[in-house]
Amino acid sequence: MNFETLAIHAGQEPDPNNGAVMTPVYFTSTYMQDGVGKPRQGYEYSRTMNPTRKALQDCLAALEGGHFGLAFASGLAATDTILRLLSANAHVLAGSDVYGGTFRLFDKVLRRFNLDFTFADTTDPESVAEALTPSTRLVWLETPTNPYLRITDIRAVAEIVHAHENKPLLVVDNTFATPYLQRPLELGADIVVHSMTKYLGGHSDVVAGAVIVKDKELAEKLYFLQNAVGAVLGPMDAFLVLRGIKTLHLRMDRHFENAIAIVEFLEKHPKVEKIIYPFHPSHPGHKIAKQQMKNGGGMISFIMKGGRDAAIKMVEATRIFILAESLGGVESLIEVPAAMTHLSVAGSQLDVDPALVRLSVGIENKGDLIEDIKQALDKA
Ligand SMILES: Cc1ncc(COP(=O)(O)O)c(C=O)c1O
Q1: Which protein residue has the closest C-alpha to ligand 1 atom 9?
Q2: pTM value?
């Protein structure tokens, strides 16, 4: 089946008890057993598995071209569970431009458990090759990144990582692209991770995370950790994400259509110093982006002339674009990462230009969105 059909049907059968077309929200913590150690349909306790969560997990696996999906209470809970595959003294190589919360978890929390992290520019596969050590067990990358939208060639990095003697696991955070635009498992990644809080949920109403893999042995280790650690997604949240996913393809195409119109407007605007968009010819990762992504997505960053003050004035003047953190919802959002989402990484190697404005372009009318940006730029 094709993506659009899978987005609506994968993992979801009409309810066998009553034919309900939509997957019910199974609000139950436990399940009756037919005899001691004889759970009726394999369900024993909802931390271990819940039918609503299972429907979502199976849907995610199908969309990413994997065989196994796991849903977590947040993107960072998913990340934390993956890192628990490792033992003390393992080395992790991560992209130097990963999401600030991922960096914080690695640098401020997991280092205390004797995991060793280095951060390298994964957009250059040679730097990945140079940064691998005999202890490297996991390589973590994001593409496109947040907020510079840097592009890493997943296939090239996968080849380098898998040629290494330890066979480290390659993890790709696919939050910005979604499986509609990019499928890292098909390009050689071992694990895909998502903040489903963003495009997969798509309506800014839920916090959730996902992990998808192809390999059965790896999946078994992750299911063990999901149950043993317990950072699982609740059934109501699983339902909300399932519902969001049904329109993922429509939303992503519309995010792109609107984003392209805004890019064309911004590139000619005298107050804009530089535009950053993966499908724009000026983007250094443009060629790779076009190879591995179906379209350029809905995230745009741009640098304002006039520095921090101009950027802040501009984002405070929009009327439709809402000044808020997060991204990937149907509504357009705007922010200044250096002063908002990326404040926690100020002064580190992840430091962001204070004049950089990030747009999460929604699916409203593109003319209205351009008018809004125009009037806000006039005020900056
Ligand atoms: C690329 C990326 N990965 C992971 C996360 C973390 O996800 P969550 O906020 O759902 O924990 C985020 C959140 O902004 C993100 O942008």
Answers
A1: 75
A2: 0.97
